[in-house]
Amino acid sequence: MPLAVVLAGVLALPQLEVAPIPATVGEPVVVRAGRRGRDEPIVGLALRMMQPDGGEVAFGETSANGECRFVPTHAGRHVVVGTIDGVRVLAPFTVRPASSRWPLALGSIPLGLALLWSFSRARGRRDP
After folding, report:
1. Does residue 25 carry a pLDDT above 80?
2. Cα–Cα distance, 17 to 66 (Å, whole number)
3. Please, which residues bridge with residue 34 across strands?
């Protein structure tokens, strides 16, 4: 098989892209379906999700711009699955648990107040 045919076939391979990586539970994730090397979105592609527990569920299909959005509900390793032109295409990604920033914020307030008090006392001792 000529090299040009092989390269053309590889460059035209369908692909799925997931963003952002890693994703976070409760935050939107975008799956894009297209053909590599071309700006050609794949419209109406049915997508399935292989979840960390081994189950597989349908979660949507791509829109006119080749995108499908969803919000993950479980942390762990996920795989988006789509069948394009008879080829099963996989896009693995990781979902992190949602992190709460309240403990950090609540812990920072007393620390900030203690530093402010310490600096003001030190300044008071230096001023004549």
Report:
1. yes
2. 10
3. 15, 41
User: Model confidence over 27-53: pLDDT tens digits?
Assistant: 999 999 988 766 789 999 999 999 888
Q: What is the pTM of this model?
A: 0.66
In three-state form (DSSP H/G/I as H, E/B as E, the rest C), the secondary structure along the chain is: CCHHHHHHHHHCCEEEEEECCCEECCCCEEEEEEECCCCEECCCCEEEEECCCCCEEEEEECCCCCEEEECCCCCEEEEEEEEECCEEEEEEEEEECCCCCHHHHHHHHHHHHHHHHHHHHHHHHHCC
Residues 68-76 have a mean pLDDT of: 92
Domains of the chain, first to last = 7-99 (2.60.40.1930)
The amino acid at residue 120 is S
Q: Is the dihedral of CA 35, 36, 41, 43 positive or negative?
A: positive
Q: How far is CA 33 from the centre of its chain?
A: 15
